[in-house]
User: Fold this.
Amino acid sequence: MKYAYYPGCSLHSTGIEYDISSKLVAKRMGIELKEIPDWNCCGASAAHTTNHMLGLALPARNLAIAEKEGLDVLAPCAACYNRMKTTELAVKASEQTKQKIANITEMDYQGNIGVKTALEVFVKDAGLEAVKALATKTLGGMKVAAYYGCLLVRPHDVGIDDMENPMLMDDMVTALGGEAVQWPFKTECCGASLPTAKGKVGLKLVYDILSMAQSVGAEAIVTACPLCFVNLDMRQSDLNKKVSGSSFKIPIFYFTELMAIAFGEKPASAGAGKHFVNTSEILAKYNLK
Amino acid sequence: MRRVGVFVCHCGTNINGVVDCEKVAKTAAGFPNVAFATDYKYMCTEPGQDLIKNAIKEHNLDRVVVASCSPRMHEPTFRACIESGGLNPYLFEMANLREQCSWVHANNKELATVKAIDLVRKAVAKVVKNEPLQKSRISITKRALVIGGGVAGIQAALDIADAGNPVTIVEKEPSIGGRMAQIDKTFPTIDCSACILGPKMVDAAKHPNIEIISYAQVEHVDGYVGNFEVTIRKKARSVDLKKCTGCGTCQEKCPTKVDSEFDMKLGKRKAIYTPFPQAVPNKPVIDRVNCTKFKTGKCGICQKVCPVDAVDYEQQDELIIEKYGAIVVATGYQQFDHSAYGEYGYGKYPDVITGLHLERLINASGPTMGKIKRPSDHKIPETVAFIQCVGSRDEAKGHAYCSRTCCMYTAKHATLVSEKIPGSKSYVFYMDVRTPGKGYEEFYKRTTDEYGAQYIRGRVSKIYEKGDKLVVRGEDSLIGRPVEVEVDMVVLAVAMEPQSDAGELARILGISVDKDKWFTEAHPKLKPVETHTAGIFLAGAAQGPKDIPDSVAQAGAAASKAIGLLSKVEMETDAMVSSVDESRCSGCLICKGICPYKAIDAKMIQERVGGKMVERQVASVNKSLCQGCGACTVACRAGCLNLLGFTNEQILAEVEAVCL
Assistant:
């Protein structure tokens, strides 16, 4: 199995743990990843809010490069996946759109290859049995809240799981021996860029998610999107300062980190040492060193 | 040469707005055999019909073509018109310039006119070959079948029976009563549902002309208007209705408790049960799926305690075959399953219930004896949110249509909650409040003004559990802000939808359903209770969402149509029936097996062959039974069967007129 790998900007910067752990999981699963040469920005979320065709053309260029090699694309970042899938569906649905895009990019993306996200490749396609088979360690009943955010499940045609109650990450957590706590905020808005741009509005959204996770007894939150991760991980100390009575200390993980660690990788080499909220305590509690 | 008159109708601007009717008439005047052609604004009106009648006399016409709307609409009108003008009504053809031309080609007027001329040319070619036809007559079985024993079925049965006709009600549940029996109070008068339905149920049971077959379903329908032959499967009740006195001892002693369907699974019933205390017939049935005797062979308590020996474990389904002249379909609706709504918890939150659940909770004979207690912990809810249009007006998850009753029953529920739980607060999330009925708007106004229900305009995007509360998150689209309310219970006004077996029943009856599977009326305005199959009528919500007053009114209308039909001694049948060219028929009788109406049989004829008289077998069509479906004409290997009015010669003349 071989995929054209599209890291996007996040996985080379703020979401480097996602990049490292995705590559480790792929390696363990025998999936070869070849980074798309000379890839460009996927456009999220500035391009499609500015100009519809620009929003389609930017991902189309990356897809066109992958198509030359005849490889489907693996895009772990939820936003990259969402933009590329939107483009893939638009090209497949309309000859006219395809032509328009080709005129802009001066490259020929025919829609012969498509895009998948990491959760799809590593969990949905691989199957829970394969995940279980590769695990050498168990999460030991760690109470984990699976948080999906918006871009992996919406809109309907682009989403990879149930829109209101997605289960892929929950099932993965269970397969690795953890306890996936059921909670109502799986697909709440994390605020995206609002915590930066409009602190009061954005931080409240992060606060709601973290306190709901806390109230249902989650010891950790697992996510599959670099922006969700940053908001949930980085904003906790900020919230503890600004909101009286709050003392959040909930470790946030990429689902690939938990997979890699369960597959036998050292937490530090899977990226778990780079988080804002310390992860060593919880990992030690469950003997995941 | 024939003398054909062509009459082109403008239908106001319906046709003339697109098709150049004057040009069509002028062109038609030049067709062979056409003696006269003209156009007029409304051909179906009295002046329009007079125009046709006068032209027949003036121009000595022997055939008529009207180019107007669909024959479904006005063929009978114009046939009657030319008949009173002195022509045989079958010397007539219609060209459909409206549904099949102007309405679908509004964006290309020029080509529409060309097509209209072609359609008229085709009709003229056919009418030239038309021959006068005569109708025949058949006798009528003076007896009606009503399928479904809800309020619509009961009303229709009572009306038909009161007119002196025997009626059979076939009800699939153990008792008649339908949805109305489950409802506590009715809007806008808040009178007790059971108190107004109960007497009607008893009237039906006691009526000398009404027979109720409950726990039964229609399995097969043969025949035709006036003479339907219906097979009814009477499911094994395991109780002998003739012996049973309805004393109720068996229900008392039965040790097996299961969720009661009548109580929306909020209460329990026994394995041998009547669905509710006022059931008609008030005699139990054994639920064989849950009965211990049927599951393990042990128990048998009900049989032991029955004082009249009415319990019969060996009873089998019974097939009843009866003849009926008319059928009224009143099978009602079912509730939309809100588990399609993930945002409302996929049907998994116990305190998110539907309107019918609340009816049972309010009802004095319901599982909580009329105390509104929420299902999860039996606490009395102090705050209740109502969400309207769940499954209605939502193409993504439910149905495109409006279910018509929900605005009013939600207002009723909010009123009743406020009365039953003093100090409680109701929130109603709505899209629009639709109250088109007598006293309805006033009722809604009282709900907000006097009972203090808070109406919030906007759809709910999410419900989630928070502790023992439910958080309802939506948008108040009047202030343009998201809103969240914490409540103890949520009531969903779920859509009405056709019974899941409506499609199957339609197939059995030979009637049609629309895109949503509601039974289709013959005309949305002018034939609201008829179906396209003569002799079958519609009543109540089986035809589309309806409240009680509308269902009862429609039931009366369907009953009067049935009574009209049954009041005749015999009935004219269509003259467009199949006919056999005996000289060419070999008597193979392939047609006999194909005919769905049992209208073809063998007969012996004598003919002279080579100077000698011989006797041989040919097919013969019973004109009273033949429904003109045409199945036999295509089955005949020699092509010697022809459908009168649609003979091979006529069809080929049409094809030639258009294609050559």
